[in-house]
Amino acid sequence: MISVIVPNYNGKGYLKRCLTSISQQTYDDLEVIVVDNASIDASVDYLRINFPWVRVVRNAENLGFAGGINAGIRESEGEFVLTLNNDTWADEHFVERLIEPMNDRSVGMCASKMLLPDGRIDSTGICLSRSGAAWDRGAFEPDKGQYDQQREVFGPCAGAALYRKQMMDEIGLFDEDFFLYMEDVDMALRARLAGWRCIYVPEAVAHHHHGGTAGVGTDLAVYYGNRNVVWYVVKGFPAGILLSSLPWIIGRNLAVIPYYALQGQGRVILKSKLDSLLGLPGVFKKRRTVLRKVKDSEIKRFIRTWSEMKRP
Fold first, then answer.
1. For residue 4, what are the β-bridge partners?
2. CA-to-CA distance for 130 and 151, rounded, in angstroms?
3. Alpha-helix residue ranges (DSSP H) falling in 137-195
4. What is the dihedral of CA 120, 125, 129, 132, to 10 degrees?
5. CA-based diameter of the chain, in Å?
6. Which of 123, 124, 155, 277 has its CB 3.0 to 4.6 Å from that of 147, i.e. a possible disulfide?
7. Which residues are CB-contacts of 59 (< 8 A; sequence separation ≥ 6)?
8. For the chain, what is the mean pLDDT?
């Protein structure tokens, strides 16, 4: 069975399309759990009236994406966990195609082809750079079939991704201290360090509004994205890669400060970087608990330069 976990925060307007698409899947061995992060838009009442077959988990406060997903996982019974943003909707064969690579027991994660409403690419998996910056492969490119080959990628965007529960039992759930953004990069890195693989499945197509809850370029997005990009690197990068990458990591984190200041977000970027530094003692403590089974070269092969980011 696959447990579909949909986190929701004031997303009532997106739920109908998302949940209807799940109900129309050709793969039907599913349990669907919507985790409500203390919404004030009557989302829970809407679910109970219109989607009584959906299991609702209510959080007393907003726990963000990471905490919301984890609350659903803890209530789930499936062998696999499918994470879906509430502002996504999936093609009818989505789950059926996405589960196929899991026949290989070394595969712990599957990435889908995520498309924006206008048909451009949102994500075909996660890419990493030496600076710690992470981006969605193919983001904002027209979908011309350039990413239509199934292949191994570093990890999936958790907006529409499949995870093996056994893998999560081994490496742990999403890091709730991240709250929003980069929690899927952290998860993918920990999975890779433990020897699990990720397969990109282009036939599994999901559509995504992108920023439907947190917005795009908002103070919220800038804060958590720029704080967590420091934390996941310090927590997970192998020691050799971390030390050799320090000039790029430090350089990027300094360079974004004037960039966001020019956008009128100087205060939020400074707070983000300050809080990332203040949180480092706790991150180093977590670093000691990360399971590491593979050689540094296994991680290094996925770290790309910016000049390579457009390559399929």
1. 32, 82
2. 22
3. 165-171, 183-193
4. 110
5. 55
6. 124
7. 35, 36, 37, 38, 67, 68, 71
8. 94
Is 21 within 8 Å of 89 (Cβ atoms)?
A: yes
Q: Residue 9 in contact with residue 31, Cβ under 8 Å? A: no
The token pair at 141 is 């490119």
Amino acid letter for position 151:
R
pLDDT in tens, 221-269: 999 999 999 999 999 999 999 999 999 999 999 999 999 999 999 999 9
**CB proximity list for 234: less than 8 A, separation 6 or greater:** 242, 280, 283, 284, 287
Going by their DSSP bridges, the two strands 55-59 and 80-84 should be labelled as unpaired
Q: Rounded to whole angstroms, how far apart are CA atoms 287 and 261?
A: 31
Tokens of 207: 């559509």
Count of CB atoms within 10 A of residue 259's CB? 11
d(Cα 38, Cα 167) in Å, to the nearest integer?
Answer: 29
